[in-house]
Amino acid sequence: xxxxxxxxxxxxxxxxxxxxxxxxxxxxxxxxxxxxxxxxxxxxxxxxxxxxxxxxxxxxxxxxxxxxxxxxxxxxxxxxxxxxxxxxxxxxxxxxxxxxxxxxxxxxxxxxxxxxxxxxxxxxxxxxxxxxxxxxxxxxxxxxxxxxxxxxxxxxxxxxxxxxxxxxxxxxxxxxxxxxxxxxxxxxxxxxxxxxxxxx
Length: 200
What we know:
Blueprint: H1 2-17, H2 23-30, E1 35-40, E2 55-61, H3 65-76, E3 81-85, E4 95-101, H4 110-120, E5 121-132, H5 138-154, H6 164-170, E6 174-182, E7 191-198
């Protein structure tokens, strides 16, 4: 699996995540960003050209060195200064905004990740996210639970059956906006959560 994880999965991830149907979700996720931004799961840097002028600096974190290499190439063609690291320690209350796009599904411990998001956000700072996860219909949920063990092995630990909105609420961040619904595609994979939460 190491060869697959290092050489095949990053390219598959890049190709899958650059689909045109995901672009509106990406645009909405970054539209409220401002100041110093932390993007967790920056991947190959597909969000970088979309950030508004209100963003001064983007710090990108991703567990894949191969995807970070692609993100580094993307940053050179972007006007903003971008810091990219596989594991970047940040001080408490040091960023204005955190952005994730289809990230909480694949982190090993989403609760710990959200705890870290809350820690690094300044008071009043925003967490903007687009994620996919558990659908509301029992029939679709059944397939999501069945498919997740196999899917996660092939798709970089991606879980189809996590509940991003509930996880955000549990973290102590205050949800200000949440929209859900299906994107185009197989229902077990495409139930989307788009939200904006704030650190008190």
